[in-house]
Specification:
The protein has one domain: NAD(P)-binding Rossmann-like Domain (Rossmann fold, 3-Layer(aba) Sandwich), CATH 3.40.50. About 40% of the residues lie in helices and about 15% in strands. Helix 2 links the parallel strand 2 and strand 3. Helix 1 crosses helix 7 and helix 3 runs parallel beside helix 4. With about 260 residues, the protein is of the alpha/beta class. It has seven helices and seven strands; from the N terminus they run E-H-E-H-E-H-E-H-E-H-E-H-H-E. It has a seven-stranded parallel β-sheet with strand order 3-2-1-4-5-6-7, with helices on both faces.
Length: about 260
């Protein structure tokens, strides 16, 4: 029930980190995967690695599309090229996210806050609209949005980012209601995962940060990817509108001080 052979996935922001791990997981389950990122050279390297290490060397199952999620034109090109290359778009993983502003909201640059919401929320809806029109509206499919535990509980540090992820979680629920029964929409909310994106969150030391987690370690990209692989498979056929925490238990402590 977790086999994805014959299905096509589009994973945004997949040149490294969580996005790359998700693409690798979906490839390992048999899907063909289109991956996007802003930097063409880095993306091409990632696509080659994905094909060699996770698709049995089959370069035909991996498509690299240089794209900026905040650009409507890029989003449309990504969806169009995916359907043209593989003939379908069964899975959409909205992984792209930014966090250009930290700290006290009274000092926040509103331009940066607007950009955060535009990329983390509006672009996600834009991708879903395009996937719906191009394939899923007629054939069905699965959408997974990568949220954050910062969208479930206040951090005080990454406040604007957290607010955008809270909006993304609510968007996930609204889409699940509106697009069912043929399209399932879920979200995954990681805590601190060891990626370049999250480095600032454990700058004082990985062990010190992990000490606040019941499982005493930070997340790995593969921890998130395996959950995404499950959610888009038939094994999760009665799940939609759900936000799955992948957080090493940190929310169970009642605080996100470590985040």
């Amino acid at each position: 029930m977790t086999d994805l052979t014959g299905r096509t996935a589009l994973v945004t922001g997949a040149s490294r980190g969580i996005g790359y791990a998700i693409a690798a997981e979906l490839l390992s389950r048999g899907a063909s995967v289109a991956v996007t990122a802003r930097k063409p050279d880095v993306l091409e390297e990632a696509a080659a690695s994905l094909a060699a290490d996770h698709a049995g060397g089959d370069t035909g199952r991996v498509l690299a599309i240089a794209a900026n999620a905040s650009s409507a034109e890029s989003r449309e090109q990504s969806v169009t090229q995916t359907v043209e290359r593989f003939g379908s778009l069964d899975i959409l993983v909205n992984n792209t996210g930014i966090n250009p502003t930290y700290g006290f909201l009274m000092d926040a640059d509103l331009g940066a806050v607007s950009k955060t919401f535009d990329t983390n929320v509006v672009a996600t809806l834009g991708y879903v609209q395009l996937a719906y029109r191009a394939w899923m509206g007629e054939h069905g499919g699965n959408v997974v949005n990568i949220a954050s535990v910062a969208g479930l509980r206040s951090t005080g540090v990454i406040a604007a980012y957290g607010a955008s992820k809270a909006a993304l979680i609510r968007l996930t629920e609204e889409l699940a209601w509106q697009l069912g029964p043929s399209i399932r929409v879920n979200a995954v909310a990681p805590a601190v995962v060891k990626t370049r994106f999250a480095t600032a969150l454990y700058a004082e030391g990985e062990e010190k940060t992990a000490a606040a987690y019941p499982l005493k370690r930070l997340g790995e990209p593969e921890d998130v990817a395996r959950v995404v692989g499950f959610l888009v498979s038939d094994a999760a056929a009665w799940m939609t509108g759900e936000t799955v925490r992948v957080d090493g238990g940190v929310l169970s402590t009642g605080t996100l001080g470590a985040v």
